[in-house]
Automatic annotation (TrEMBL):
<dbReference type="GO" id="GO:0016747">
    <property type="term" value="F:acyltransferase activity, transferring groups other than amino-acyl groups"/>
</dbReference>
<feature type="domain" description="Thiolase C-terminal">
    <location>
        <begin position="244"/>
        <end position="393"/>
    </location>
</feature>
<dbReference type="InterPro" id="IPR002155">
    <property type="entry name" value="Thiolase"/>
</dbReference>
<keyword id="KW-0808">Transferase</keyword>
<dbReference type="Pfam" id="PF22691">
    <property type="entry name" value="Thiolase_C_1"/>
</dbReference>
<dbReference type="InterPro" id="IPR016039">
    <property type="entry name" value="Thiolase-like"/>
</dbReference>
<dbReference type="InterPro" id="IPR055140">
    <property type="entry name" value="Thiolase_C_2"/>
</dbReference>
<protein>
    <submittedName>
        <fullName>Acetyl-CoA acetyltransferase</fullName>
    </submittedName>
</protein>
Length: 394
């Protein structure tokens, strides 16, 4: 990997990353979390807000991202609000990097915030079992095929086809919680065992509660800039080396293979464009609304062969000090999951590459050096969409 390898016509760097207050946040609006994360990311970059000429946001406002940009006092000349579920932020990061590389923008701010947990607790909204009953979904909703049931069905297919076990899926939750234990910002940090996972209430067979992501509040922000801004940055350089996006299906009947996610396409494109191989990656931040998402994404990104995910995650290789650290902050299963979590993956990857994760949870290579390459891969809908971004440091 050549440091700062060109993404397009111009190199693209990550200038700043930050989280808002996360976990249980009962006294803030989603807009306030957007603003808090944006201010912190800007401070992290060392740049003045006047440099921001691009803005990307999704999930909030009648005219996102215009409404959120107005709240933040920004008047961008490049905007994007592509919304494809959990993969939204990797897709938006890809779009932003392409715009910067092409010279359409110099500094693009990506920001997200949600009070999903607080809103339910306060009765301002209710939990939803599906995304609606219009369009193609009308043919599935009457049969009670909920969002989680779609993931559960896919997991059962993998178990049937490849012999993947519930214990192996549970090991993902156990290792993710172990990573969260060292993260002071994680919502749940107490250790869990495989028996704890298997013995919990069944939500949708085969998933028990601990196979599923938590519901939290929180926000985060990422500022991407052109190479021209690099001399002004306050933190070690992290470059966007390559990205890929893909969509698959919306109705389960149109999904060719329940054991293959669109990450098989987005990952291949991202690695090819970055000029790296999966075996060179030092850590992976993967969307984990359910344990099966982690397993199948590892397969589809090429970290193990199709059908071998169960054996791959059955050891402790996903831990911070394992062969392939995955979801080093505790992921959506334990740290935070306020909705479209994909931007959190980028924040954690950048912090690890910079060496800013802290002494108790910083990933290091076998020789003690900091990691040099990371991948963030988001999944949206029920494996309907995928965005993968490869990052590298100097």
């Amino acid at each position: 990997m050549t440091s700062g390898a060109p993404y397009g016509n111009r190199k693209v760097a990550v200038a700043g990353v930050a989280l808002s207050d996360c976990g249980r946040v009962d006294d803030a609006t989603p807009y306030a979390l957007h603003a808090q994360a944006a201010r912190r990311a800007l401070a992290d970059s060392g740049l003045d807000r006047s440099v921001i000429d691009g803005f990307a946001s999704a999930g909030l406002g009648t005219l996102a991202p215009i409404e959120v940009a107005e709240y933040l006092g920004l008047r961008p000349t490049w905007v994007d609000s592509t919304s494809v579920g959990g993969a939204t932020w990797e897709v938006l990061a890809a779009h932003a990097a392409e715009a910067i590389a092409a010279g359409h923008a110099d500094a693009v701010l990506l920001v997200y915030g949600s009070t999903a947990r607080a809103d339910i607790k306060a009765g301002r909204r209710t939990s939803n079992l599906s995304f609606g009953a219009r369009g193609p979904l009308q043919f599935e909703v009457p049969y009670g095929h909920t969002l989680i049931a779609k993931y559960a069905m896919a997991a059962r297919r993998h178990m049937h086809q490849y012999g993947t076990t519930l214990e192996q899926l549970a090991r993902i939750a156990v290792q993710t919680r172990a990573n969260a234990a060292a993260n002071p910002d994680a919502m749940y940090r107490d250790p869990i065992t495989v028996d704890d996972v298997l013995g919990g209430p069944v939500i949708a067979d085969p998933f028990t509660t601990l196979h599923c992501c938590i519901r939290s509040d929180g926000g985060c922000a990422v500022l991407l800039v052109s190479e021209d801004r690099v001399p002004d940055l306050a933190k070690p350089l992290v470059w966007v080396l390559g990205s890929g996006t893909a969509v698959s299906h919306t109705t389960m009947s149109e999904w060719d293979d329940f054991t293959v996610s669109p990450a098989a396409v987005s990952g291949r494109l991202a690695f090819e464009r970055a000029g790296v191989r999966p075996e060179e990656i030092d850590l992976a931040e993967l969307y984990d609304a359910f344990t099966y998402m982690t397993l199948v994404t590892l397969e589809d990104l090429g970290f193990c062969a199709k059908g071998e995910g169960g054996a791959f995650v059955g050891t402790d290789r996903l831990l911070r000090d394992g062969d392939l650290p995955v979801n080093t902050d505790g992921g959506g299963l334990s740290a935070c999951h306020p909705g479209m979590r994909g931007l959190f993956l980028l924040v954690e990857a950048v912090r690890q590459l910079r060496g800013e994760a802290g002494p108790d949870r910083q990933v290091r290579k076998a020789d003690g050096a900091l990691p040099r390459l990371a991948v963030a891969s988001g999944t949206g809908g029920w494996f309907c969409s995928s965005g993968t971004v490869v990052l590298g440091r100097d």
